[in-house]
Amino acid sequence: METADLIWMNGEFVAWEDAKVHVLTHGLHYGTGVFEGVRCYDTDSKGPAVFRHQEHIARLFKSSSLYYMDIPFTAEQLREATLELIGRNGQRSCYIRPLVYRGYGTMGLFPLDAPVDVTLASWEWGSYLGEEGKANGVRARVSSWRRISGDSLIPHAKASGQYLNSILAKIECHKSGYEEAILLDERGFVCEGTGENLFIVRDGVILTPPQTASILDGISRSSVMTIARDLGYEVLERDIARAELYLADEIFCCGTAAELTPIREVDDHAIGSGRPGEITRAVQSTFEDALHGRSERYADWLDPVPAHHFSKVAAS
User: Fold this and answer.
1) What would the pLDDT profile of 88-115 be if each residue is shown by its tens digit?
2) DSSP character for 306?
3) Which has the closest alpha carbon to 145: 124, 171, 125?
4) Which domains, and CATH codes, for the chain?
5) What is the pLDDT of residues 132-175, one digit of tens each?
6) Of 46, 62, 158, 170, which is the active-site residue?
7) What is the pLDDT of residues 22-76, one digit of tens each?
């Protein structure tokens, strides 16, 4: 992976290579952590700007609360620290990883005596499913692994340990020759990808699984739904049967890491013509404009990095 100069840890900027934790860190053993995936884009109008920054921080706090972890910083402190980190690292565009986790101090399954640590890291990272995938679509398979159920964990929380579920599905699809996996929920309805929300297009209508399908309430998902409706498309949240994937005219997925990526094939069934469709392209184009600051309509989704944070790099 690409490295940067600095990582923010519990209120201090430390050298990338010195950002370490104890081997008995609680989160390392039990997955007791929550995180976010955020991106900063270099825009023509605002310079480097973080996409939906406040919404990501708000979800971080909500995920942390669901797992009884009180973050020892305010949302504004984390926002300012993130912007300063990007500037100090001299990054015009980057992926950002806020992480809140139970630190070193106690072991065992009762976590409340362990301290809560917070780190912020940023690095250059391309699209999760590749630029080729964004351009021409990826091949997916329905995983044999089901998405975690709300009866056992909290699908709405972006929690570290829960991603073992996605990792199993990701390895399975990779070993069988596909780029991505699609997980079904416990009832057998379509849920999401390993790190993305899903949309299908049938007869000009855009469909996406509802909150009750054990999905993560994606910030990119919300953005895409807003954009699609602004473009005049009907967007419905409803349960989607597995066979509807094969019958779809178009399928695409979205997430901060993957951005908006078409899916051209599922379980060896070509989707539509086997190429990204017209509606997918229209939504993808407008979404890209929003990410890169080319749309005034969505300008308030961007949180610019103040120029003075970059001046610290020059001064040093």
Assistant:
1) 999 999 999 999 999 999 999 999 999 9
2) P
3) 171
4) 6-125+310-315 (3.30.470.10), 131-276 (3.20.10.10)
5) 999 999 999 999 999 999 999 999 999 999 999 999 999 999 99
6) 158
7) 999 999 999 999 999 999 999 998 999 999 999 999 999 999 999 999 999 999 9
- Cα distance between the two ends of the chain: 25
For residue 302 the two structure tokens come to 């961007």
pLDDT of residue 316: 52
Report the C-alpha gap between 213 and 238 in whole angstroms.
Answer: 9
Arithmetic mean of pLDDT, 201-228: 98
Q: Using alpha carbons only, what angle is made at residue 157 by residues 10 and 58, rounded to the nearest 5 degrees?
A: 55
Q: Which residue has the tokens 């980057």?
A: 94
Contact at 8 Å (CB) between 293 and 46?
A: yes
**Nearest C-alpha neighbor of 160 from the set 40, 79, 254, 63:** 63
Distance CA 124, CA 93 (A): 7
- Look up residue 181 and give its two tokens: 């996996």
Instruction: Output phi, psi for 20, to 5 deg.
Output: -125, 160
Residue matched to tokens 């308030």:
300
- Residue 6 tokens read as 């600095």
Task: Report whether 180 contacts 172 (CB < 8 A).
Answer: no
pTM of structure: 0.96
d(CA 178, CA 189): 21
C-alpha to C-alpha distance for 251 and 137, rounded to whole angstroms: 9
Cα gap 182→26, rounded to integer Å? 31
Q: Which residue blocks in the chain are alpha helix, DSSP H?
A: 26-30, 53-66, 75-88, 131-136, 164-175, 219-230, 242-247, 278-291, 307-315
Active site includes 158? yes
